[in-house]
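Hi there,

I know you've been waiting on this one. I reran it after we fixed the sequence typo, so this is the corrected version. Both the input and the resulting structure follow.
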Amino acid sequence: MPVPPVLRAEWIKIRTLRPLLGSLCAVLLATTAFSGLAANGADDSDPLFSAFLGVSFGQIAAVAFGATAVSAEFRGGALRLTLSAVPDRLRWYAAKVTAIALPVLAVGLVTGLVTLVLGRFLLGADRPAWSDGLRGALGCGVYLTLMALFAAGCAAVLRSGTATLGVLIPFLLIVSFVIGDMSGSVADVLPDRAGQVVLHTSWDGLLGPWSGLAVTAAWAGAALVAGAWCVRRRDA
């Protein structure tokens, strides 16, 4: 089967599963809501991060979207049915990854722009400059997409949404914060810490905005490659 019909089929799966649509909506709502709350009580030390602080919560919804979209294939023999229509496993996997990435990127970019406008309004005189803000909005969309793909790759390896979320959510909410102050060390290259550098006005660690996103992309790429290997080698 050619790629376009496979991609269309994967998109139909995503838009007909309410939990996935709910996760996409939660990316926007969680990011803007928590960013707005943070901006109300923020100081002016880093106005850009004050405007985008809610991304730390929105990324949980993005991770849930990526993990659920893949793990749904491993329930009730759905993957066997899919592979009977698309025997080329890597073609199906590529279509699945693309069907995950595109809507998250679209929602992430909208989220970034809405969050920027809201943050500039709430921060008043302390608002970030448009140049920094637009970089943050673009980085927000790219970062959320990469985290969704990272979760998708992990779900293809673990074959369980529950297991994937059970590993990634504590990692993002606890582990990263515990070692987050160790600047210049392993903390700088954690996927969330590296990717969120783009949301800061200035940075003191090893990475800059785009090199930080590149590190997050490397994490996502490694997870997707591992997922592709498992999809190809394991029984459906």
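Quick highlight: The CA atoms of residues 123 and 162 lie 38 Å apart.

Best,
R. S.
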